[in-house]
Amino acid sequence: MSVAAAIGVDAGSTTCKAVAVDAAGRVLARRVEPASPRVEEQAERMVAELRAEVGPAAALGATGYGRKRIRAGLALTEITCHARGAFECMRRPGVLVDVGGQDTKVIRIGSAGEVVDFAMNDKCAAGTGRFLEVILGRLQVPLGAVAEHVRSATRAVPVSSTCTVFAESEVISLVSSGEPLEGIVKGLHQALASRVAALARSAGPGTDVFMSGGVALNLAMVEALSQALARPITVVPEPQLVGALGAALSVMGASRGARPRAV
Amino acid sequence: MILRRAQYEAAGRVAAPFLATLEAWQRRLRPRRAPRETPFGPPLESTRKLKELMTAHYYQGRYADGAVPVAWVTSGFPVEILRPLGFHGVYPENHAALCGVRRIVPELSDAAEGDGYSRDLCSYARTDLGCVATGKTPVGRLPRPDLLACCTNICQTVLYWYRALAAHFGVPLVLVDTPYVYGEAKPHHVSYVRAQLEELVAVAEEISGRRMDPDALAEVTRKAKEGSELWGECLATATNRPAPWTGFDGFFHIAPIVTLRGTDACNAYYRQLRDELRDRVSRGIGGLRDERHRLLWDNLPIWFAVREVSTLLASRGFNFVCTSYTNAWAEAGSRVDPADPLGSAGVAYTHVILNQDLRHRQETLARLARDYHVDGAVLHSDRSCKPYSIGQVDLKERLAADLGVRVLLLEADHNDPRAWASEQGDNRITAFMESFA
Lengths: 263, 437
Hints:
By secondary structure, chain A is of the alpha/beta class. By secondary structure, chain B is an alpha/beta fold. In chain B, helix 12 links the parallel strand 5 and strand 6. Chain B is globular and about 65 Å long. The model of chain B has no long low-confidence stretch (mean pLDDT 94). Classes of the chains: A alpha/beta, B alpha/beta. Chains A and B meet through helix 2 and strand 8 of A and strand 8 and helix 18 of B.
């Protein structure tokens, strides 16, 4: 069995992720939990669990909004870590679309895995996973049933994506008007996809588009975004863990004396 | 009137210098604190003089109304024309920036919003209208205007803002409308602006009760041109490595060229500052202790977060060595001609950066990027300043494609902290800095 070389923690706004990797960058163990407001305690416990599972790993890297609260050897922004993690998995340049709980990032990754450019949603979570989470919750549609709803919809009911709160009341109004639930769910996906696609406009023709973040687990969303961008999208393996993986790889590179590739 | 005039003169010539001397003595008597760990180089000696100059200007302003004619003017207004007629100039934008630095904008803006002004309105305008409504100001008191002088070369908002001021104060509003320039201004554009400046002279003469002395106007114009050139020389010292100051220093030291343009005090100040900066260059003293990366800044500063943003950047050796904003006041001088004060003012004030097309902006940014040897740029997408922010996505792509410069588009506001998400801003800037490693 491989020996753990580094642990990466991604303390995001919605979930906290942690991975342990070996010296070759392979993920040996992982943890994903809803984010706790006590970031420090949660991260310490998750790291302890990973160490108990795969043995003591020397280096700890942190990323995400909670990174400053984690006692880690290296703390980097999630932009750098997502690029690092995605490049490790995909091994080629491209545009990474990371749709997380409250952040959507579009990161242009260069041929050496470096961050060439990035754009993010600003001051509003309407283009993020929270948009779907809030409204699907209101419609009482479990995440596991989303893909089936979208597949069975005969048409998409247009829903605005300007504001999550207003969209929620709009959706309730649509339900009251007798619009089919499936069509509304499909419309929600298209609304979110159009919002994210607006950020990803810098992806030139012929550029590979990758997707990461918890929302990439929702295949209906991947499909909607693919249609909005009019090009295929490759989901990075274990998309929710890409940031934590990048943090682990970066701290491993730093502790070996090499500069982290993506930072 | 005579007593008021005596008060005004005494405030500027006696009281303000006395207060400055008193402050200097108090500073000397204060126990010295151990120097803090800082990424910045030694502070500029001239900063003390800057404070004295601006304090004196605002202090004297308290006694201006009733003593001399008072004009409230926009930052891009040809104030040189008013000086020979004895006007005391008040710059609501400069004053609003001061309110921004002192972090009192939310309460002033609340007052303006309470009067029905939208939060989507420029935060300078909201700050000023809030000051007018409440009388609150960090400078003690702003003198009541006899004339409102507004030039649309910086934006159209100023027109409606100054109309609101005119309705409030019941005083004349002079509008100088500058046609937007694509390439170079056409001769009929220039003659149109010149005709308005001639009207301005007539109105200002009536309000001041004085006749324009052409020689005095030529002299003020000469001083304004010289001041603009001196400011340009100060900025140009930052083409050296390391830059002897930071771009954020420049944001503060710009105050005299905006508010005291055309005066001896302004030019004397910039001579002192230029000499100090050149001396720092010759001795290798930088604005940062360790300048590793050189950046360009586009748009107004984020006044309430200047220290926060500059410290974050400086902590990793990033220095703003040039800004399109401070450069704008250096460029104006080249078109000014003391032999033709009104005609050349028409040309100069029509060609300010915000009144020219995007190609000019792009060329200006590219020239600054090359001249100052920058390897990155931050384009402040300013919620309050639409004319300055529009086109920045294209500018970003051009800077990256043509010059290989890394560019960050940073969303904020120049004066309203409620439009600034500190944690998210910090995250974007940090990610931007990480991309240089």
